[in-house]
Every structure is written in C-alpha cells, then in structure tokens.
Amino acid sequence: MDEIELKLHLSEESARMIEAAGVLPGKPKPVAQRSIYFDTPDRALAAANLSLRIREAKGKRIQTVKQADKGAAGVLTRPEWEMPVSGDVPVLGDDTPVPSVLGDGAGRLSPVFTVAVDRRRWLLNEDGAQIEVVIDQGDVRAADRSSPVCECELELVSGPPRALFAVARRLAAAAPVKLGVLSKSERGYRLVGPAPVAIKAEEVTLDDGLTAAEAFRRIALSCIRQFRLNEDLLLASRTAEPLHQARVALRRLRSAFTIFRPMLGAAGGGLREDLRWLAGTLGEARDLDVLLSRAPSGPVRDRIRAARDKAYDEVAEVLESGRARTLMLDLAEWLGHGDWLADPDGQAMRDKDARDFAAKALSRFRRKVKSGGKDLSELEDEARHDLRKDTKKLRYAADFFAPLFARDRRKDRKRFGASLELFQEQLGALNDLAAAPLVLDRLGLGDMPEAADLIGTHDRAPLLAAAEEAYRDLASAAKYWK
Predict the structure, then answer these.
(1) DSSP-derived 3-state class of residue 302
(2) Which PROSITE patterns does the UniProt record give (predicted)?
C-alpha cells in the first residue's frame, strides 16, 4: 500500500506549544517505540532508496519496508510493505522489492542504526479526510553517534491529500514549524557516514512519458528539499558552504519558474516575489563570503569579517521568520493543489510531453545565450550579468532535464555540459570582480589602500579572454536534444 504523509520539523518548544494550544483534540498517552534499521555492509538497500526496519511498541513488532523518494518534499506518497514479525530478525518475502535488490546477499543484512522515540498520536477529521497526527521526540543512534528527533507527521488515512495542509497550517499558527524533508532513515544513514557540510542538488527523477506539469512539480520539490537541507545545516554551522548551496537551491527554483513560464504564465506570482526576497537576503551574505575569501589579514579583512557576521545574523533572523517558514509550506501546497493546475487555458501545455517541452526550453535558452554573448568584451557589467543569469538558466535546464536525454548522443551531451559549465564559471569570476567595488563601497572601505587588491582590475583582461574562448566553444557545441 502507499503511505501519504506530510512531515513537519519542530523544536521541542514548538512541540510543547502545539500541545498546549489545544489544536489537537484530547491528551494522548506517549507510546515508546524502538526501531532497528537493517542494511548490508555496502548499503545495498540505501542505494536502491529502500529502508527496512523492525519497530517494537507495546511488546509487538512490525517489519516495514519503504520506498524513498529522496528528491521529494512536501506531501510524500511512498509505497510501503508491513507485516508482523516475532523477533528482531528480518523476514524477507517476495511481496517486497528487497529480495530482488539483495539477491544472494540477504544473509548479509545486519542492524545499522536504531531510532527510539516517544510517540503521541491524535486522529482528526478534516474537510472530509481522516488524518493521523503524531509527534515523535527521541533520537537516532549509530554506534557512538546520535542525533535528536523532534518532528510531526501527518498521515492521510482517508480523503483528499490537500486536507493535510489545512491541519499543518493550524499547527503552524500555534507554533513555529518548518516543512520537513529528512526521514528518520536518512538521519540514521547520516550518522554512519561523514557528516554533511552542505548538500548539492540531487538528480530529479524524470521518466519517459511524463507530462510537463509533473516534471515541473518534481523539479520544484527537489529544489525545496535542497534548500531545506542546507537551511538546517546553515543555521547550525553559520558557514559559507551551506549558505551557498541554499542560495543555489533558490536560484534553481526561481529558474524553474522561468523555464516553465510558457506553461505557468503569471501563476504563483506572490511565491516568486517571496523567493526573490529570500534569495536577496542570502545573496548579501554570500557576497561578503566571496570577498572575505580573497582578503588578506589586516584591517580591511577585519571589517569584512564583522560585516559578514552581521549579515549571517540577519540571515538567521530571516530564516526563522514566519514569512520564510511558511513560504516552503505554501510552495509545497501550491505545487500539488495550486491555481496553475486549474487554469483551463493551460491544460494542453500541462499535458505536453515533458521531453518535447524540455527540448523547446533548452533551444530557447541556448539561443538567448548565443545571442547575448556575441560581443562579450564590449558588454557593460550589467549586460554581462544578465548574460550570466541566462547562462545559469540554460545550465539548470540542462541539469533538470538530463534524465530525459540520458540515452541520447552522449558525446555531444558531455561536450555541451562541459562548455556550459566553464562559460558560467568565467562569467561568475567576472561578476565577482564587478561586484567587489560595490560591496566595498557599501562597507565604507572603497578608499582604503588595502581594498585595491580585492578589486583586482588587473585580472579583468585575462578573465575576459578566457570567457570569450569558453563562449566560442559553447556556441559551437552541437545540440544533443531533438
């Protein structure tokens, strides 16, 4: 059967506030749950996006196999297989994908990590739907490492999935909550490997025969997931890497809106404005990170460091604001149930084959980049910045749609991707040069002698030459899509 679930990330204080607010009926008794997750030494199940656990509660054990979708966020619809078992040893039947994944390696299964939580459960009736709401608090443990768990899961028992968001909004009105994108099994696997510093974009699952509407939804949800994962890392570490990747996630998401504009029209305009606002806040801190990485020791670096620390304070304040918290929830709901899905004039475009839509989008942005870069050395900084943004959109489109063309003209795809990446990097370096004086002036440092080395005007000519060469290589690269 399929599990339909919406996950919310909570703090312990938020969990107390929700229960105290009375938005969930009754006073449930906590149920202690202990789950053991199994895998092979080479993590064959994790590689197949499967999890296998045995959960014990009230003296009974239930074995569950789940199929994960690591590119998703918001409402998750996941196949799961459950059966009672008598002990802490997995029972593998042919009714799950596990035997086909493991083959002869089933005997190598062993415990990898455990999850112990106190669960509190409510059953709600909401807009014709029945929803199970649970709050879990506890920890995940693997050997000598552990990670706390505090989350709320809303599982649809019956009725329309949109009702999950109605309940989520009542909870969000009672206490600060955030869209959850990390499963308990993912938390456990993080403990048995290197701790992530930042999360890069994951490949979006796009299958043959997919519609343009479903492709957009999957792409956007993948971007939301990347942002939320890096947001949590950023708030915990206040370092440049997760800030950069959180900003990349927002750029990818905003680019997705642009790429799919022929289908979306003006739909989601308010969400786009909120994304622009959030990206702008992160962008100011990112500019200071770039400048700080180039600054030698001395008074200028100290001033940049102080400004950078203040910018990170502002980023943290924004990320914890109600506007930012609800934005990801708004986006997840809009992607599944928004006005863009109800517009009759856009039905034909939404039903269009994703591969055909992708080919036209790639051609459209390729033409823009080829046209915009013809006289690269003559462009003003602002025009070159616009070209850089178009180049990013072309690269994001190529990344988004890569699975749809995975079997096509591999040599051409490789050359096009390499040329596109190099051209974007050269434009990025030129943009950093152009932005440095503006950031220094904003900090009141432009007239200091040490600031001249950060502007690096002597680097401009070789960077322009390299960018022109990269453009020529990209312009001559053949299209690999049809």
Answers:
(1) helix
(2) CHAD, CYTH
